[in-house]
Structure formats: structure tokens, C-alpha cells
Write a structure and sequence with these properties.
By secondary structure, this protein is an all-alpha fold. The protein is 62% helix and 0% strand. The protein has a domain of 87 residues.
Length: 266
């Protein structure tokens, strides 16, 4: 008869710290912050809400940190950093439901069903072709939502077309090059004696959203932008920079149970 063993702190000895691992995790966190920010904006678009102000983005990312920094989440998510998976948010567009209550109830169901192995076996029996079809729709919808933000820019401008095309192309090709190189050589293109430096660069350039963002921001700020604020969509985005910039923000982003007093909007 197997005994039930309860783990206790420092069961396998005192924790060790390595600067190289810390820099590797810093790059992973940087990548996941960028991807999570894009996922939040996509979720707001799919839920027909206003773009989240800066403090709402910071609040969401901060809560992800708190959710993952616990005895269970730390073991599960340590190697992944902080990440909001954009594939989840397509359901808000397909079901037209963007309520927090749905997420809370779904989380309760997942916790309950995870205790019963039969439900796991049921989901494991779903054919891979169904998963493939769902993923085709899911990622296609998420990608189209990201591109829909370009409607607020002047896409008749050759400058904007150039930035969009180059950032998308390099955002797809550079990470693919890094993946193929790593598969063939068993190490990334950045291969120096400093392991922390290798991990930092290889992790960043393996993320398509991060590479596309860096290229787009660099080109948008270095190419001639005189008298092009309207072409870049700045007037439309300006009113969403603060919580009070749009009256609808209070409807979408006010916290329940009077929690706004602990997380005041800015």
C-alpha cells in the first residue's frame, strides 16, 4: 500500500542561484510580456471593448505574476515565465461572451475535472484532426484580429505598407531560421562562451511577435515621420492612453467588489 507523502519546503536541499539562468529567465519574461500585451489587446478587440489603458495592461501582467508565483504555479510555469496564450482569446470572438464570470466558472470546472482521471481520458480520446481544425480557425482568427488594428492607420501610405510588410516577413523568417539552426546544430546561432548571453539572444529571437515588434518600432521611429501622426493612427490611440480618456473604460475595466481602491486607475 503506497503511502501519501506531502512535500515540504527545501526537501531537496537549499536553493541555488545562477546568473546565467537569471538572464535566461529575464529574456523569457521579456518575450512573454510582449506577447501577453498583444494578447490583451486582441482579447479587448474580440470582446468589443475599448483598447486597455496602460494601467490595465500592467495590472493584468502583475496578476499573472502573482498567479504563477505560488508553490504549484511556480513548479508548473517556471520554465515558461509569464505568458497569456493568445489562442485562448479567440473563444471570446466565436462565442461573443467576454464576461469574467465565465472564466471563473471555467476555472472551477477545470480544477474539479482534473481530479477525475476519466475526464482526462475522454479529452485525450479526441482525434488529432479535430484539434488541427480548431487550431486552424483559432490562430487564423487571432491573426486577423491583430491585423485589424491597421485600419486606424493610413494603409495607402507606402511608408506604412513597407513597415507592415517588412516587420511581418522578418517576424516569421528570423524565428524560423533560429529554430532550424538550433535543430541542426543543437545550439542557437548565438553561441559564445557566455551562456547567459546565448540564452538571452536565442530566446528573444525565437519569438515571432517580439521580433516583429522590434522591427516595426525601429522602422516606425527611424523612417521619415514628419506630419505623419494621422497616418500612424496616433489621434485614434491617444484617447485610450488614460483610463478617463474614454467613458466606456469604466464599464469594461472597473473591478468588482470595490477593488479599484486597491488598484486605482491612472
Amino acid at each position: 500500500m503506497n503511502r501519501i507523502k506531502i512535500p515540504y519546503p527545501l526537501q531537496w536541499g537549499a536553493p541555488t542561484f545562477d546568473a546565467g539562468h537569471a538572464f535566461g529567465m529575464m529574456s523569457a519574461v521579456l518575450v512573454s510580456l510582449i506577447e501577453s500585451t498583444g494578447a490583451y489587446k486582441a482579447a479587448s478587440r474580440l470582446a468589443s471593448a475599448t483598447p486597455p489603458p496602460a494601467h490595465v495592461l500592467s495590472r493584468g501582467i502583475g496578476w499573472q505574476v502573482c498567479g504563477h508565483w505560488n508553490p504549484v504555479g511556480w513548479h508548473v510555469w517556471y520554465s515558461y515565465g509569464i505568458y497569456g496564450f493568445s489562442g485562448k482569446y479567440w473563444s471570446a470572438g466565436s462565442t461573443r461572451v467576454g464576461s469574467r464570470r465565465v472564466i471563473q466558472i471555467s476555472a472551477g470546472f477545470m480544477i474539479f475535472f482534473s481530479i477525475l482521471g476519466k475526464f482526462g481520458a475522454l479529452f485525450a480520446s479526441i482525434p488529432f484532426t479535430i484539434f488541427a481544425a480548431v487550431y486552424c480557425v483559432m490562430f487564423g482568427l487571432v491573426a486577423s484580429v491583430g491585423l485589424s488594428f491597421l485600419q486606424f492607420t493610413n494603409m495607402n501610405s507606402m511608408r506604412n505598407l513597407f513597415i507592415t510588410g517588412v516587420s511581418l516577413f522578418l517576424g516569421l523568417s528570423i524565428p524560423e531560421y533560429f529554430r532550424e539552426y538550433t535543430t541542426a546544430a543543437l545550439h542557437g546561432p548565438a553561441h559564445t562562451k557566455a551562456g547567459w548571453f546565448n540564452d538571452f539572444l536565442n530566446t528573444i529571437f525565437l519569438s515571432s511577435p517580439t521580433v516583429a515588434l522590434m522591427v516595426a518600432v525601429f522602422l516606425d521611429n527611424t523612417l521619415d515621420y514628419k506630419d505623419s501622426a494621422r497616418d500612424r493612427g496616433m489621434p485614434w490611440w491617444a484617447k485610450f492612453r488614460t483610463f478617463k480618456g474614454d467613458s466606456r473604460n469604466e464599464e469594461f475595466y472597473t473591478l468588482p467588489f470595490n477593488l479599484n481602491r486597491f488598484f486605482p486607475p491612472s
